[in-house]
Design a protein that fits this description.
This protein is an alpha/beta fold and 121 residues long. It has a single domain, classed as NAD(P)-binding Rossmann-like Domain (Rossmann fold, 3-Layer(aba) Sandwich), CATH 3.40.50.720. Helix content is 33%, strand content 21%. The chain contains four helices and seven strands, in the order βαββββαβαβα. The strands form two sheets. A five-stranded parallel beta sheet has the order 2-1-5-6-7, with helices on both faces. A two-stranded antiparallel sheet has the order 3-4.
Amino acid sequence: MPEVVAILGASKDKSRYAYKAQIALIDNAHTVVPINPKYDMINGIRCYPNLASYSHKIDTVTAYVRAAILSSLVDDIIQASPDRVILNPGTEDSKVIEKLQTAGIQVEAACTLVLLRTSQF
């Protein structure tokens, strides 16, 4: 079932996994919400500076920022109240995981691209 997926650390750089994830999510009929304060648009889709600036329900947040940045965004993620957060390789942080789980948010340490390719998303 298609979801609304926020991409933390969305990128215009075609070599970045965040960019590849955006394309794959769109190809799999998901609505993407790019999150990055550096951009206004990515691939013709409005890019938001932070999760709080997107006022609709987010089903999944997929993180493509390093753990140090993610830890500074954990309260924003909790405020957005997604059903789950996917921590892509390199983003994992045990304190972030604990805080998200305590808030009732499902956390997966996984690769969004692999989840999509193997129909496990």
